Amino acid sequence: MIRFGMPLAWLIGFVGSPIASSVDWTTLTDEAKLTPNFPTLDEATQAPSTTSASFASSESLPFDSATLVEKYYATPATAMSTVRSTYRNWVGPWSLSSDTSCYREAHIMHTCPRNYDRNDLTHTCWTECPIEFPVKCGMECVLQNSNCRLEVASKVSAVAMAAIGTATFGAFGPLMKMGKKLTWAVQCTNQLLLVMRGIIRYVRSVKTQDPQLSHEKLLLMLYQTNNVVTDLPMVIYACMGKNIPSSLQLSQIVLATSQWMLLQALTYEDDIISSWQKFRAFIKGANFTEAAEEITEGEIESLETAMQQNSSCAGDLKSLTDRVWMTLREYREAAVGITKDELRLKISESDLVLYDVALVTNNCIQHLISESNKGTAYKTRETLRKTFGVIINDLIESGHSDNGTSLDEKAHVYKWIDTGLSTISASMTDPTDIATLLSEYIQRVCGPTQFMGEIDDGTEDATLGLNTLQRAFKGSASSWSRVGDGAVIIRFTSTDTKGVHVNIMSGSDRIARVSVAAGGTAQWKSNVATLGGKTLYLTRRRPGLLGLPGKGGGSLVLWVPRASQGGHLELDVKVNVS
């Protein structure tokens, strides 16, 4: 028999606890006819001869719940995401927005987070303009090739603030309504399916990479993942019919149930969620018999359909929402009195914002394309990313939200949002429906550019969202590599009959002007460290009537990514007669 080590010994210690004594440890074997790979469940109930066990490293440790949590469990803020990239992350093909502008979010702060412009006179941080609206125009960002007119820039601020205000809890009303329609049994089974699928997916991935990895080491790895640190405890509370506590405390009951579930994931893997009969046995084994018995035939049919789906898009979105919520809560509890400014800065530098939101939403692309087309899929991804920006911003606000609810009540609202996302993911609802539900409320607010993530290599226009309007720069091309020397090189080649000046703007601010002689060439260099994480926007000034310079003729826009491994961007710009 394979040595199981600490988790088994620790779990056996709970035989006398209420949950351990009431669990039918043979349920899976008897009802589901599953064949275990290592210690049978009957063997797992035998009383241990000691309260501790040794790992493969021969380290002997106590296994009381406090030690387990303190020494082996990560926290929501430090937990490792188990989601891996399944689709190349490109900016996507450029498309003309149906809106003419978006409103820029603003905060009065001493230090600005990433992707914010600072106005030193007013000590205000303004959201940088996204690639869809690359031209800065006061409180707004407007479309490519647009001129910022005074009357647009001087719009009454109350209008903009009202628009931004609707992009908070109003956006999630449909999800709340969807969640409230669910019975407790459906909430439990749906969420449990999502969490176990995530855990099993991670276990399978790790075993594929290292088939000889011991179960002890694999469990230690699981304790560091978001699936076990946040998702599993939250679903256990839901299945127990209890509200998630203000601090996600891992009580003995929650820990014992978590350990039992992890044992099953290691033993049976995909078999657990291969059919309703086997999943029902698993639910009963976890001591959630009432939920397994109360679910109706129609709900079972929907759940069985969900078991067969390949896409984990909405399930990962739900998990990500949980992590955002719990991470911000952890930040508050770890630093009593932390200000909104400090909280906004801290979360802006987290892996959650810099990598995870981009990764999870981008993994939805393949499924979205299969349900619609490439252009619609990328628009839906943008809506999902905006949604997380709204969630983060609203949770950062301390005291009371715009509608006067307290933070505890706000947490209750997010419970229903989570439930709504669980419903969508477990019922095979097309993720585009999520965007449809939310787009009405968030389309007027500029999308958060910090969720672009690291962009994969490519030379197609869709790699960086390169787009030219009119003739001035038509025929231009780019080449991007994630790994490189950090250089940004722009080469200009003119076929114009007149000399021109090209304005180079990064994040809507002009940083250079390059003169290109008629029929000549020019070159301009910078680096990814300076330009990364912002739009790059080119316009042209060309002598027109009576030799006076004019700004017309066209423009070029693309996204310059951040790159942890240097990156390398080359842009070949054609300067044409127009």
Gyration radius from CA atoms, angstroms: 27 Å
Tell me how many strands there are.
18
CATH class label of the domain at 461-575: Mainly Beta
Shape: elongated
Could you please describe the fold and organization of this structure?
There is one protein chain. This protein is an alpha+beta fold. It has a domain at 461-575: Sandwich (Immunoglobulin-like), CATH 2.60.40. Helices cover 44% and strands 16% of the residues. It is built from 24 helices and 18 strands. Strands 9, 12, 13, 15, 16 and 17 form a six-stranded antiparallel sheet that branches. It has a four-stranded mixed sheet with strand order 10-18-11-14. β7 (135-137) and β8 form a beta hairpin. α8 (173-180) crosses α21, α11 (226-239) packs across α12 and α20 packs across α22. The longest helix is centred in the middle third of the chain and has 26 residues, at 184-209. The model is unreliable at 1-63, 150-172, 399-410, 426-432 and 545-549 (pLDDT under 50). Residues 1-22 form the signal peptide. Keywords: Signal.
